[in-house]
Amino acid sequence: MSTPQKHDEYALNLGKLVSTLQSLEFCLRAFLLEVETHNSGQAQNPTNYQQLKVGDRVVVDAFTNYDNLSNLIEKYNKVLLPVDPKLTISKSLVGIRDALAHGRIASFIPLGNMNLLKFSKPQNNQVEVTYSADLNTVWFKDNIKIALDGIKNVVAAGKRLGMNIFSDP
């Protein structure tokens, strides 16, 4: 077991990881929307997603659909594999994101060691541990880097494919 993080350090690292995963999902959706628009061959009126309000209705597309991170990475990798396999994204990020969203923190005190656990659905009144990690500084640093590398790959892929959304202003 490693040295426990201070509460502020833990909160900052958790925020960095969650926001990086959210940014990765945004980049994947923007990339796939561009691919979708290009493949349709039709000019589409772009939706200004930042101005949407509760109750607004928009068309289902790569940005608004119900795909989870696993589906997004799968679709992205399918486009990139024939172009440049080095720009694909590891699906290991899905396990991390799911553990953060659906897991439990095992720690009796806020400043103690934090262990992230995720369990399977019950079967015969038992669950299996499907994820376990000590949420130390190294774990956060490594996983933030994996997510940032994913973002860099999506941006590089977009530029390589000549996508407008990834070009410098």
Description:
- With 169 residues, this protein is mainly alpha-helical.
- The chain has one domain (7-40, 53-166).
- It contains 4 helices and 3 strands, in the order αααβββα.
- A 3-stranded antiparallel β-sheet has the order 1-2-3, covered by helices on one side.
- A hairpin with an 8-residue loop joins strand 1 and strand 2.
- Helix 1 (7-40) packs across helix 2 and helix 1 runs parallel beside helix 4.
- The chain is globular and about 55 Å long.
- The chain starts with 6 loop residues before the first helix and ends in a 9-residue tail after the last helix.
- The model has no long low-confidence stretch (mean pLDDT 89).
Please specify the SSE layout and strand pairing:
Layout: H1 7-40, H2 69-80, H3 92-102, E1 104-106, E2 115-119, E3 129-134, H4 137-160
Antiparallel strand pairs: 1-2, 2-3
Helix pairs in contact: 1-2, 1-4
Features:
single chain, 169 residues, mainly alpha, three-stranded antiparallel β-sheet, 4 helices, 48% helix, 8% strand
